Amino acid sequence: MHELSPFIRAMDSFARQQGRHELPWRQTHTTPYGVWVSEVMLQQTQVQRVIPYYLAFMERFPDIFCLSCASWEEFLPLYRGLGYYRRGENMLACASQVVKFYEGEFPREKKALMALPGIGEYTASAILSFGYGLPHLAFDTNMQKVFGRYLHGNRKAKVDKVSVENIISREEVDMARFNGAVMDFAATLCQRTPHCHICPVKTHCCYARHSGTTEPAAVTRLPRTAFDYRRARVYLWLHQRHRCYYSAYSDSFAPFVLAVGVTSRQQIKEYFRTAFELEVAVRPPHARGQVQDHPALLVHAQILQGEANFCQFPPDEIYRHPRGFIPEG
Q1: Which of 80, 148, 170, 278 could tie 272 with a disulfide, CB 3.0–4.6 Å?
Q2: What is the pTM of this model?
Q3: Which stretches of the chain drop beneath a pLDDT of 50?
């Protein structure tokens, strides 16, 4: 394997000089619980957006015992806006299990952690590393990008994670410090378009040595065909955790057809709040097209709070109805 010692030394220096030490979950008093909360919130969400959510959440639920006693109605206001609400449901389930089976302390074994709701290999490694100081490499998409370029010249190249972790462990590295350094390095220098001219490992990096020619160029997105949002209608599939779908009709399934002009996610939320006293999470449109020569946006929305007084259908039935697959105008 390509020599990692220069990279390890560079990351130690980078952590001291340019590490994001101000992040609230990077403080010395942060518990494994705080690490877990931050990692869940950071999934597919930008760091700066997470900070105020994290601070408010930790003030309301300072430990896992408080969170384990919370209802969905108490939890939701502190989580609303982060999206991917299954993560929130898993947080409540996970907190309950940690209190019930582990007396409120996250287990120190990766296998036991990964058996908890919503915790995968990366999150388990992050808890063990940042929360307990154990030698686990928190390998995520950022590390894939960095090690793929450093070792193989391509951010998507296959990386032998086990070998990398073993090498770093033998160097007696502070793994939490190292993990944080690579995350910060990926976010500030080794970006999608990397800043190789100021990179501290450019002389050892396979990507930099080959001037980036070993990595395929990013795909240039073609401009989208003009879509007339002013005339568009939203066809909306309303569901409850995808376990049941609600119909706009009483006798058969059909999506909700909203008025022309009600197309943004905020407008859709306000419509269901005003018309039905429902709080909904709205996903970005999964398709655009024409319905009876009218611009149409196909959207899914999940009920978060409120009582839905609509006819219900299981997921496997909704497309059996003539109005379920191709909306009627």
Answers
A1: 278
A2: 0.79
A3: 322, 325-329
